[in-house]
Amino acid sequence: MAVYGIGADRGMSRPMVRILIDRFFGALIVLSVMMAAIPVLVLLLFVVIKGLPGLLTPGFFTDPPFPQGVPGGGVFNAIIGTLEIVVIGSLLAVPIGSLIGIFLSEYGRNQTGDVISDVLTGLPSIAFGIFGYTVVVLTTHHFSAISASIALAVLMLPVILRATESALLLVPQSLREAGLALGAPRWRVTLEIVVPAALGGIVTGALLAMARAAGETAPLLFTAFGNDIVQTNPFQPMGALSLTVFRNALVPYNNLQDQAWAAALLLVMLVAATNILARLYVRRSQH
Amino acid sequence: MISIRMQTEAAPRAVQDGDAEIKLDARHVNFFYGDFQALHDAALSVRARRITALIGPSGCGKTTFLRIFNRMHDLTPGTRATGEVLLDGHNVLSSDTDVIRLRRQVGMLFQRPNPFPKSIFDNVAYGPHMLGWSKARINQVVEESLKDTGLWDEVKTRLHRSALNLSGGQQQRLCLARALAVEPQVILMDEPASALDPIATLRIEELMQDLKQRYTIVIVTHNMQQAARVSDFTAFMLMNEKRAGEVIEYGPTDDIFNRPKDSRTEDYITGRFG
Amino acid sequence: MATTRTLFDQELAELKSGVVRMGSMVEQAIAESMRALVDRNNALAKEVIARDQEVNELHRLLRERAFMIMATQQPVARDLRLIVSFQHMVLELERMGDHAVGIARAALRLNDLPQLKPYIDLPKMAEITESQVHEILGAVIEADQDKARAIAERDDEVDTLYHKIWDELVGFMIQDPANVQRAAILLFLAKDLERIADRVTNIAEDVVFLHTGRIVELS
User: Fold this and answer.
1) Facing residues of B44 across strands?
2) Best interface-test mutation with B: which of A182, A193, A284 has the largest number of B CBs within 10 A?
3) Residue C89 resides in a domain
4) Rounded distance, CA B222 to CA A38, Å?
5) Quick check: B116 and A182 CB within 8 A?
6) In terms of domains, do A25 and A139 share one?
7) Which of A151, A226, B225, C185 is most exposed, with the fewest beta carbons within 10 Å of its own?
8) What pTM was estimated for this model as a whole?
9) Average pLDDT, chain A
């Protein structure tokens, strides 16, 4: 407004001033978007360029890692591990998180829930690892996939809870009233009308939480720990893609470093695919 | 419908309506949002199988009053209603009222069509299904309700398609069918046509004339012409100096619109209300 | 009272002043047609007849105006009663104008003939009728239903005079067939006056309706 005033004082015609201001801010927005997008695009490009050769190496998807110094080897153990840890974590987090979200939105509306979930969202992810370590690893006396799943579940919880809560808040009040005015008890209205109407948002939230969990490294360090052999027993240490990236990046063998890049690319693809899936689901459920 | 009587002074049509039994009787109703009093000593005797309209300017408490009749105000935290609302003699405001049962007896149609995001069939079947009726009975009641609202012929070939694809007017009639399916005795309508175009509005109004053969209807409306067209009785409400709603005048619609007793009613219906 | 319908109120006020103007034109026509008879003034009688066109034109205009207001403003209650009674009043006034023309035509024919008798009761009847018309317009302006009822009461005086005139004129006819033509014209003239008084009663009923919303019969 002030800029507009100055322009007018200088005797410039008002439409002219408006057009100039409009152009200026338009350019500013484009610039900001570029500044935000360029690093991400460069990073992606870098990962693709560095990771693609490793990804295309025979055996990458199907072999477990070979001992250091031995050429070849793959990340089959880590793929299985990531999938298993995330799936178990989701099985724990999705029902609990969405139930808490439903409760907070439909019944609770109290500050305590909000504060707890805000604190959980703000915690550094290493803290979740420490949680898994303290609660599971120390009590069972060994590293295990299940401890990683529990750590990730706690990490996913606030995301799912928030997504559920906000999806439910988007359901118009009039829909609840319609159900209640028919003489339906509150729980039936919630489960049969409100939740189905918000399902798109809830599922999206769950998928995004899973995507985030899949990419986490820190919570896995002292929980799943890592395992070079293919392990499917959730009570044993287990490999994971993010752990592969972390470990292999530190070793002085080219083939293993290539594997780290390839694992990073695979992880990016996995997260991107989950995100796209979530968006597709939202679009479909809106019709 | 209007019987012409050979008398020197013409008899208003509602004189014979005055004999109808009273279905819903609100007495000395006060309503509070926290400390704020939104209704003051409101009274209304709703006659069975008649249409009663609540009119008045925005904020006069007419919707608040309506929502007390089936305890929808319970849903808003911090509200309190005192006084009596007798449904067939039983006070619905008393704490021992089975609210679930009450709302089946006193159904409601809202300002905006609010079909569930389900199929047309499932919308109407929701109530009956909840009551655990047999499949055959549900099928029957869905068909009857859709026929009662004039929707059957329009939707019978796409009963299992989403209700959200219907037009606004159709959606509102679907909501009405949904309310009818649980076989209520009273239907509360909160500005049911305010979101509809004129033709859809007239269809709803016509439907109300059919429905009043079997149901008692209370309608809140901003549209005075609508109140004059459809209702048998009209109550005019206004805020008092403390901003609490009061019933200023209540009587046969003919009287309210032709020869209101209170000058405030006259000012409002003739559009002289500031 | 807040003025949320300024335009509408203005339209109603214009309609009302139109009705009153039409009323005073009719009042004048009645007075002048009677003067044309008593003074045997043909020119005045012709003027009354010519001026009825203006009354008719105003009548048409006011009806159109009232119809337009009803169509566009959807009046109810007091407003609706006002417009409906105005519509009815202008109809009555238009007919009263026609009766004045009837009197003027009768005057023209009688003025060509020797006077049958001195006019005594007829001017008296006319005087009452004229004052009724004058006063009922006042009642319309003031929307005074008590006054309107009182004016309607005076219809009895007019009726009494009318019957007296009737008997007298019939007497003339029986006396001498040569009187029949003039007596008959005078009878029609008296009938016109009597009808004007009836129409005043109708307008009085409109004033009561305006006030109470009840359609009453004042006679």
Assistant:
1) B26
2) A182
3) yes
4) 56
5) no
6) no
7) B225
8) 0.78
9) 87
Residue numbers in C near B269 (CB within 8 A)? 76-77
Angle subtended at Cα C120 by Cα C114 and Cα C126, rounded to the nearest 5 degrees: 105
Domain assignment present for residue C181? The answer is yes
B162: nearest CA partner in chain A:
A287
Residue A277 has pLDDT above 80, yes or no: yes
The alpha carbon of residue B196 is apart from the nearest alpha carbon of chain C, in Å, by: 21
Nearest to B164 by CA among B197, B121, B115: B115
Count of structural domains, chain A: 2
Strands (E), B88-232: 90-91, 106-109, 186-190, 216-220
Contact state of C214 with B9 under an 8 Å Cβ cutoff: yes
Q: Compare all CA atoms of chain C with the CA of B264 and give the residue at the minimum distance.
A: C1
Is A45 within the bounds of a domain? Answer: yes
The total number of structural domains in chain C stands at: 1
Cα A3 from Cα A181, distance rounded (Å): 54
Q: Which helix (H) or strand (E) holds B28?
A: strand B22-33
Q: Are strands B36-47 and B22-33 parallel, antiparallel or unpaired?
A: antiparallel
Same domain for A86 and A52 = no
Chains B, A in contact, 3 or more Cβ pairs below 8 Å: yes
Residue contacts between A and B (CB atoms, under 8 Å): 62
Residue B74 burial (10 A CB sphere; 0-12, 13-18, 19+)? middle
Mean pLDDT of C83-104: 96
Nearest residue in B to C219, CA atom: B8
**Would you call B53 helix, strand, or coil by DSSP?**
strand
Query: What value of ipTM does the predicted structure carry?
Result: 0.87
Give SS3 for B197.
Answer: coil
Per-residue pLDDT, A5: 45
- Domain extent for A40: 1-56
Contact B100 A182 (CB under 8 A): no
List of residues 6+ apart from B193 with CB closer than 8 A: B172, B200, B201, B204, B205, B221, B223, B226
Q: Is the pLDDT of residue B3 over 50?
A: no
Residues of B in contact with A184 (CB under 8 A): 100, 126-127, 130
- Phi/psi zone of residue C21: left (φ > 0), alpha (ψ -120 to 50 degrees), beta? alpha
Q: Is residue A183 part of a domain?
A: yes
Q: Which of B15, B254, B270, B273 has the highest number of chain C CBs within 10 A, making it the mutation to test binding with C?
A: B270
Looking at the fold, whether A114 and A43 belong to one and the same domain comes out as: no
Q: How far apart are CA B43 and CA B251, in angstroms?
A: 12
Query: How many other β-carbons are positioned within 10 Å of the β-carbon of residue A116?
Result: 14
Q: Which residue of B has its CA nearest to C211?
A: B259
pLDDT, tens digit (0-9, with 9 covering 90-100), for B94-150: 989 999 999 999 999 999 999 999 999 999 999 999 999 999 999 999 999 999 999
* SS3 category, C66: helix
In angstroms, the Cα distances linking B112 to A113, A168, B105, B172, B173 are 33, 19, 21, 7, 11
Q: Which residues of C touch B9 (CB under 8 A)?
A: 214-216
Question: Does A65 have pLDDT greater than 80?
Answer: yes
Does A276 share its domain with A161? yes
Q: Which residues of C touch B258 (CB under 8 A)?
A: 76-77, 80-81, 213
Number of DSSP helices (H) and strands (E) in chain B, helices first = 10, 10
Amino acid (one-letter) located at A104: L
Tokens 């509200």, located at residue:
B79
Per the structure, the complete domain to which residue C175 belongs is given by 7-212
**For the domain that residue C34 is a member of, what is the CATH number?**
1.20.58.220
Query: Counting Cβ atoms within 10 Å, is residue A284 exposed (0-12), middle (13-18) or buried (19+)?
Result: exposed
Name the H helices within A104-144: 111-122, 125-132, 138-140
Q: Taking the CB of residue C38, how many other CB atoms lie within 10 A of it?
A: 14
Q: Is residue C218 part of a domain?
A: no
